[in-house]
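For the sake of transparency, this paper describes our internal protein records without simplification. The record that follows is passed on verbatim for readers who wish to inspect the format:
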Amino acid sequence: MATNRFPTPRSSTTNTFQHVSGANSALWLGVLFCAVLTGLIWLLGDRLAAFPKLPDQGTLWYYWKLSNPTWVTRLSAWGLYLVHQIANFALIRKAQRAQLTYTSGLHSVNIQALAVNGIFAVLHLIQTHIFYDGLAQDVSILSSQGSVIVLLVWVLMMENPRRGLFFGKRAPLHHDIIAWAKKYHGYFFSWAVVYTFWYHPMEVTQGHLIGVFYTFVLMLQGSLFFTRIHVNRWWMVAQEVLVLIHGTLVALQQGNGIWPMFFFGFATLFVVTQMHGLGLSRLTKTLFAAAFGISIAAVYSQRGLAQLNEVIRIPLIDYLSVFVLAGLIGAGLWIARRTRRLLIRAG
């Protein structure tokens, strides 16, 4: 999820596999792998009922963790997570140091990343059925949810120069902030996705299955860095919209009646921001906006106008967070520049 401007590809094929091993083929085969593995998780799910769990203890309680964890069960989750995380960081660093360009094929490091994430996806399934516990035993659910929220906000900020933030209009974010965000986003995205992946056991509730498929897709995206498909605007928006589907279905499953907050909240992000980076005609954008407005009218004529604030809760938080995140990065850059100047003067 970076910029949509592609540097001129290198002519060398030493590190790039074309044709059959192209990035487009890798994407579709990867999505198929994600779907098959998610199906396997579902098929094996009945075995997980044997693992004892504590009763639900409220809103912030994560139910799917062992009632009697041991150092072995903890080591199985944390150990595999750390190896997975370090491997991804190392591959990102390797790709950046190689100064790769965006190509239609796969670099050798892409194949390595696909292999690493595929292997650890299978290992997590095995680990769940032997030891069950994920990182949830030791850290709050807010850490997992928060990491993904920041990832989505980071994308909104990073894509601001290309598609704008509000109806195609760019927010006044300094180019140094965007440049830094693009350069280092891979490390944060890798942490957010891999951490969330190992937070949950591979359970078979509707929410878990949709969530793990979404996480698989994000790991696939992360494995295709420095390829043209990685910055394909349709593929990028598809991943952003997946959170609408995931959030809405999880809310419906929980039966708490707040599914419109997720559906219309993330739909607002699409209408206000995301669709403006797709090169759509004015008529198409108008039709999307009209469908959005009609849907709101239909739902809230039943729910009552007093509940209309649900529509703006998620967008308000996300858009404000864009400026907070940009401010934090900007402050960090200012401190770094100031420190360098002081060190130069002192030297």
Notes: The mean pLDDT is 90. The first helix runs from residue 23 to 43. Residues 283 and 289 are 10 Å apart (CA to CA). The longest strand covers residues 16-17.
